[in-house]
Amino acid sequence: MLSLADQYAAARRCAIILDRKARGRIALRGADRKTFLHALLTNDIAGLSSGAGCYAALLNPQGRFIADMYVFDLGDASLLDVHSDVTAELLARFDMLIFGEDVQLGDVTGVWGCLSIQGPESAAMLASVLDTGGQAGLAAELDGLGDLASLRHTFAGDTAVVARSDEYGAPGYWVYLASAHVASLGAALELAGATAGAPETGELLRIESGRPLFHVDLDEDTIPLEAGLDSRAISWTKGCYPGQEVIVRIRDRGHGRVVRRLVGLRGDGPDVPERGARIEADGKDVGTITSAAWSPALESAVALGYVHRDFTEPGTRVRIAHKNASLAATVTPLPFVEGGER
Known about the structure:
Layout: H1 4-13, E1 16-19, E2 23-29, H2 33-40, E3 53-59, E4 65-73, E5 78-83, H3 87-96, E6 104-107, E7 112-118, H4 122-129, H5 138-143, E8 150-155, E9 158-164, E10 172-178, H6 182-191, E11 195-196, H7 199-208, H8 230-233, H9 244-252, E12 260-267, E13 278-281, E14 284-295, E15 300-308, E16 317-322, E17 325-332
Parallel strand pairs: 1-11
Antiparallel strand pairs: 1-7, 2-5, 2-6, 3-4, 4-5, 7-10, 8-9, 9-10, 12-15, 12-17, 13-14, 13-16, 14-15, 16-17
């Protein structure tokens, strides 16, 4: 495997392959699967047509995360892409909430794997290795997919669901397919010119893109509005769901004001702060770092962290506790780095 520097360069200039084995996958079938999910999740699931997808959350009655997930409507089933840590909990919760609805649940994590290919050349490379690789215009078809939209293709004679996800800014795709074919797909993409990536490279790209991760930047104490996820995860026009009363009250009575918010922080120097490091301003603690990395594109440390709402304005200067010293940093709009080269 190439160095992390070479992997990063490939992601920004060409394409990188990342194995999404840290994710869980839940399949729902049955005539009532969409209305069942719609009643529980924060986004509009009932409005998804076949081939469409969205980002959503399951909240507790206090409006805090139980889990976040990507929901894909595959026509004959719904596929949930979730953090592996909450897969079993979600299955148990959903199972307890089925009261006569026509819904069948299944953990398909071990049956279906998922590879991510990200970067400016990802559509062309992916099109070249699918069984329909000789089909004229396939790369353009993939490139034309909307965010989280999916198409069914085949690889090694078996079904492959290709979903658009520009998670790191540049064009990108998640390919769901039988676990037995994951290694073969990765090898084929490497032959096509993509670079195999390590989890550390994916984590760097995630932080540069300002994407909060569950159980890292989000947890069971987080309200979606604190993490700036209301535009991605919440439908303001759908019916009731657990936690909706709290979310709507914050929006309408509190004018969207929460005590803390997730922000980007760009360091002045080369030192990368540790997760959990204190953020200080005006001589007092105002927040905590949740993720941090060295950004090759910016040649500085970048971090995600929660700060008190009085210190969220871009350009605000803060200090981050680091070992026996403190690091100077500036609140910076997200994402830190836009997509890769075309």
